[in-house]
Specification:
This protein is mostly helical. The chain has a single domain (9-140), classed as Arc Repressor Mutant, subunit A. It is 58% helix and 4% strand. It has 7 helices and 2 strands, in the order αααββαααα. The chain has helices at 9-20, 27-37, 46-58, 74-80, 97-116, 121-124, 126-140, and strands spanning 62-64, 70-72. The protein has a two-stranded antiparallel sheet with strand order 1-2. Helix 3 (46-58) crosses helix 5. The longest helix has 20 residues, at 97-116.
């Protein structure tokens, strides 16, 4: 299994900007575009994508539309001319508690995008998702 080809946040940032150059997309569509762009070799995890999207919104690099799609800003146009392209090939996964929680949060954001796109996958997998939710609830109970 290949894993994440882009190990640094800077690379994910550039990839998001490159994908959004073709037009606004929500998080799930960004992941699909990256996977297509890399011929299936990489699909960013929701736990890395969604926190980066929020960080980029906070930095005014992208904006979140009322529809839930993200789009470029004037600020992001300058990013392409500043030599921010990088081409690493390394994997990453959560290394600590905070990163694991970010990963879970990103996965929930991803599932929300899937639901917003009208997919029935969540209903089809309700039992599995309920079991996962129960396991998480048990982690935080006394």
């Amino acid at each position: 299994m290949m894993g994440n080809m882009f190990g640094k946040r800077r690379d994910l940032r550039f990839t998001i900007l490159a994908v959004l150059r073709s037009g606004p997309k929500n998080g799930a569509e960004i992941m699909d575009s990256v996977e297509k762009m890399t011929f299936g070799m990489w699909r960013p995890s929701p736990g890395s994508l969604y926190p980066m999207l929020q960080k980029m919104v906070d930095e005014n690099m992208i904006k979140k539309e009322p529809s839930g799609a993200y789009s470029l800003t004037q600020e992001s146009d300058s990013w392409f001319g500043m030599g921010h392209m990088h081409n690493p090939f390394s994997g990453n996964s959560p290394r600590n508690y905070d990163e694991a929680v970010d990963e879970i949060n990103g996965l929930v954001n991803f599932l929300e995008d899937i639901k917003a796109n009208g997919s029935t996958k969540l209903k089809e997998n309700k039992e599995v998702l309920d079991k996962i939710a129960d396991r998480i609830r048990k982690l935080t109970s006394d």
